[in-house]
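TASK: fixed-backbone design
INPUT:
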């Protein structure tokens, strides 16, 4: 049995979980999320906990699905009670971001500003040189952050671009450093 899947998921205060057929619905102060449980996994809600188990332990991927399902349900409960956020940092001369309405406008040295529209449930906030992406769905927040970072990923020579907060960019030496030790 999966080590992660064995642990029951605690239901936080203010969060209600309901099971309809093979769909788990989690309702909390920040919103509602739902997830369809895979065929090889069964779930039951009892006294403030959700317990998951494999239907057929001999199936190939049932252990992996059990751990995955447990993690997703745990993230749903955390999302509707606390929410998730990712922070991105802009570094580069003239690189800036601003929120206009719901959309995020990025000025990244291209000939035009890049407009990013949020998916449902995602909010953008800009402060100083950082972009804060927040929402209740962990996967959606992470995917949105990855899409924004992919617009102008950090380059290794000057470190310009969009990076995650705390991300370390391995820097490379340029041509000038290589030419110093060269032959005339």
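OUTPUT:
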């Amino acid at each position: 049995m999966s080590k992660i899947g064995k642990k029951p998921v605690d239901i936080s205060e203010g969060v209600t979980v309901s099971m309809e057929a093979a769909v788990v619905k989690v309702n909390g102060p920040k919103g509602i999320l739902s997830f369809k449980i895979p065929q090889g996994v069964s779930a039951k809600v009892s006294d403030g906990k959700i317990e998951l188990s494999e239907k057929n332990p001999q199936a190939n991927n049932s252990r992996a699905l059990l751990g995955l399902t447990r993690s997703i349900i745990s993230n749903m409960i955390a999302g509707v009670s606390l929410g998730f956020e990712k922070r991105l940092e802009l570094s580069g001369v003239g690189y800036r971001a601003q929120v206009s309405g719901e959309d995020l406008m990025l000025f990244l040295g291209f000939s035009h500003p890049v407009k990013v529209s949020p998916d449902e449930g995602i909010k953008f906030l800009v402060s100083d040189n950082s972009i804060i992406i927040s929402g209740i769905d962990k996967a959606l927040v992470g995917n949105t952050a990855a899409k924004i970072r992919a617009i102008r990923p950090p380059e290794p020579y000057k470190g310009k671009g969009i990076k995650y907060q705390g991300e370390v960019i391995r820097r490379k030496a340029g041509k000038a450093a290589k030419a110093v030790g060269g032959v005339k």
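COMMENT: The chain has two domains: 3-81, 84-164.
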